[in-house]
Amino acid sequence: MAHILVVDDDPAIRQLLTDVLELEGHEVRVAVDGLAAVRAMEICQPDCVVLDVMMPGLDGYGVLRTIRAQEGEPVPVIMLTAAAEPDSAVRAWADGVDYYLAKPFGADEVLSLIDGVLGYPLPAA
């Protein structure tokens, strides 16, 4: 399966996403803020990033811009936010996010988005 980097300053969300993704067979690495995310990107070279918008220090937009500035095949990024305002979504799309998802979200919703960006076949309904 895939290597997923989960970036969120909320420990409960990090744990939820880690548990759900690992149950699906993914390898998960976590980062607690934007600066840790940038360091983790250099080390683990994930197949997909699940990224919170609002974090102390370097926010999700800064992390996204750093990811998009890297050379090579672009890493899919799914942004999560508690503040799903139109301006925030527009900014995320302009910075190159693949998907933008408002909190609260369902675990199945995140799994489907990850499967989609990684090109995995979606389960039949």
Automatic annotation (TrEMBL):
Q: Sorted alphabetically, which SUPFAM superfamilies does this protein's record hold?
A: CheY-like
Top-level taxon of origin: Bacteria
| Keywords assigned by UniProt, alphabetized | DNA-binding, Phosphoprotein, Transcription, Transcription regulation, Two-component regulatory system
PROSITE patterns with a match to the protein in the record: RESPONSE_REGULATORY
**Signal peptide from the UniProt entry:** none
List each coiled-coil range. Answer: none
What the entry lists under CDD domains is as follows:
REC_OmpR (cd17574)
User: Carries keyword Ribosomal protein?
Assistant: no
Single GO biological process annotation from the record: phosphorelay signal transduction system
| UniProt modified residues of type 4-aspartylphosphate | D52
Positions of the Response regulatory domain: 3-118
Molecular function GO labels: DNA binding
PANTHER family on file: RESPONSE REGULATORY DOMAIN-CONTAINING PROTEIN, STRESS RESPONSE REGULATOR PROTEIN 1
Q: What protein name applies here?
A: Two-component system, OmpR family, response regulator MprA
